[in-house]
Each structure stands twice: as C-alpha cells, then as structure tokens.
C-alpha cells in the first residue's frame, strides 16, 4: 500500500463559502464512502471550528465526520481519539497556532499512529497552522528576518511550509528559513490555495492563488542578519524562486516545475 497524500492549504480554505478545496480533500479521501477526522487543537475557537467543519465535510458528501480538540498530551492519548484515527480515511487539521497544535499532540501516541497510518495510505490535510505543522522544521512565528523555527510533526522532512504568504507578506521569512536550512525547500501558500503532494513526490497546485517555492540548493553564498546590533542586512546569491498556480505541478525529486499539460522527464 502506498503512502497517503498530503493536502496543505494556505488559509481561507472556503469551508463557509465555495468549499472547492474542502470538496477536493473529501474526494481524495473517498467521497461518499469516506470517514474524516478533524483536529481543532490549533484553534482558540474550537467550538466554532467544530460547527463549521462538521457542516462543510458533511455537505461535501463524506459518510462520517469526527471532530476532536486536544489541548495537551493526555487528551491526545484518548482511546476514543486513537480509535477514530484508526477508522479515518483522512485527517484534517484546522488553523490557529502551529506551536499550540504541536505542543498538544507532538510526541504522543496520536503523533506516532498518525505517521504509521500515513505510511499505510491515510490522507492528511491542514490549513494555515495545520499546514505549517506538517514540516519537520516548522516556522513557529516571527516576521521578516526574525523568524523562529521549531520542530513540527515531520510528515514533510524536506519542506518548510508557510501560509497566508502574499496576504501577510511572508516571503522574506520563508527565504530566511530556507537560508538556515539550505538543503530544504520552502513552500509558501497563498490563501485559498492548496498543494497536493502524492506518494510519488509530485506536488499539484489547486485554488485561486499561488504556491511560491524557495529552493536554496544552488546558493552561491549567504550572509545572515547581524546579531551584534549592527544594521548589516541579509545577503544571499543563487536562490531559485518559482511561483506556481492552478494546474502547475512540481517534481520534488527533480526539483522541476511543470506548467499545465507537461509531465516530468523523470
């Protein structure tokens, strides 16, 4: 059995509006036959998210929706939650705060079982904080050059995810995160936009905005922001940048962007 897909949304996933991205994740999970587990642990408004996502996924046609909110490790070890995870065809993480989400669920039995189920074919989605938390190296907070990194769930070992990219002017912090981890790719998602990454390592863009990819594999040199109080700016050369929209694909192994209608040479 092949690994499940990852479906990452840059925020504003349309759950109360057109539901295009929610509908796509529902179809990915099996449509009318699907059982979806929604985790609201990143949210400071879990009851609102419970109502909205329950309605959105049921209206998208899935068979069953379970909603859980864990605020600590004890709740993330709940046997009912673990049983729901075992029954699910897809798990979807809501927005809020990625640090809050990982603090509640990282390193728990849920975390361990989530990884195992993903290897067995479970599809995993997330919006905003729920997307950023998928990375091994996670952007926790910060703006511009003052970005703070932390450990995420690690489902994406070679990709750092940021969200609300254009709307909150976060390109510079994504570049900074990649400069600190030049072997990794930076994926910056606009609101209303998703990237779907399949088991073969092909990333497809869906939605109204763009996916900005920051690739530091060809860096010539870089100079970090000064930490001694001087005003020396960040400097670098050789960074590659792609901006992909609906219909574009990206081959993670080849680090190659493909416009609509073109397939990877590999």
Describe the protein's topology.
Elements lengths: L5 E4 L10 H10 L5 E5 L6 H14 L4 E5 L4 H4 L2 H9 L2 E4 L4 H8 L3 H12 L2 E5 L1 H4 L4 E7 L2 E6 L7 E4 L8 H10 L4 E5 L3 E5 L4 E6 L3 E5 L5 E3 L11 E3 L2 E5 L4 E3 L4 E3 L8
Parallel strand pairs: 1-5, 2-3, 2-4, 4-5, 8-9
Antiparallel strand pairs: 1-10, 6-7, 9-12, 10-11, 11-16, 12-15, 13-14, 16-17
Helix pairs in contact: 4-6
Concise synopsis of the structure shown:
By secondary structure, the protein is α/β, with parallel strands linked by helices. It has helices spanning 20-29, 46-59, 73-76, 79-87, 98-105, 109-120, 129-132, 171-180, and strands spanning 6-9, 35-39, 64-68, 90-93, 123-127, 137-143, 146-151, 159-162, 185-189, 193-197, 202-207, 211-215, 221-223, 235-237, 240-244, 249-251, 256-258. The relative contact order is 0.14.
Uncertain spans = none
Shape label: globular
- Side by side, the strands of the main sheet go 3-2-4-5-1-10-11-16-17
Going by CATH, the architecture would be 3-Layer(aba) Sandwich
Annotated CATH homologous superfamily: Class I glutamine amidotransferase (GATase) domain
- What's the total count of β strands? 17
Strand content range = 25-35%
Q: Give the C-alpha Rg.
A: 18 Å
Which sequence of SSEs, written as H and E, runs from N to C? EHEHEHHEHHEHEEEHEEEEEEEEE
Mean of residue pLDDT values: 94
Task: Specify the structural class.
Answer: alpha/beta
* CATH topology call: Rossmann fold
Helix content: 25-40%
What is the count of DSSP helices, taking H or I runs of 4+ residues?
8
**Distance between the terminal alpha carbons, to the nearest Å?**
22 Å
């Amino acid at each position: 059995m092949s690994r499940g897909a990852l479906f990452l949304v840059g925020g504003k996933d349309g759950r109360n509006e057109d539901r295009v991205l929610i509908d796509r994740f529902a179809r990915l999970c099996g449509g009318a036959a699907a059982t979806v587990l929604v985790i609201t642990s990143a949210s400071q408004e879990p009851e609102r998210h419970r109502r909205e996502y329950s309605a959105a996924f049921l209206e998208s046609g899935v068979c069953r929706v379970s909603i859980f909110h864990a605020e600590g490790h004890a709740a993330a070890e709940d046997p009912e939650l673990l049983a729901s995870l075992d029954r699910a065809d897809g798990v979807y993480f809501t927005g809020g705060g990625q640090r809050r989400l990982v603090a509640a669920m990282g390193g728990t039995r849920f975390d361990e079982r989530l990884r195992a189920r993903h290897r067995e074919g479970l599809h995993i989605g997330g919006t905003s904080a729920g997307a950023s938390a998928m990375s091994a190296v996670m952007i926790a907070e910060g703006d511009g050059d003052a970005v703070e990194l932390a450990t995420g769930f690690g489902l994406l070992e070679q990709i750092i995810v940021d969200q609300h990219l254009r709307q909150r002017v976060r390109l510079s912090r994504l570049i900074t995160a990649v400069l600190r981890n030049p072997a990794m790719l930076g994926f910056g998602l606009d609101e209303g936009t998703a990237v779907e990454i399949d088991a073969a390592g092909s990333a497809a863009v869906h939605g109204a905005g763009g996916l900005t990819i920051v690739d530091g594999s060809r860096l010539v040199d870089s100079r970090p922001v000064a930490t001694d109080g001087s005003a020396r700016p960040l400097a670098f050369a050789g960074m590659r940048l792609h901006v992909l929209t609906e219909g574009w694909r990206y081959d993670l192994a080849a680090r190659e962007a493909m416009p609509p209608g073109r397939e990877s040479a590999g």
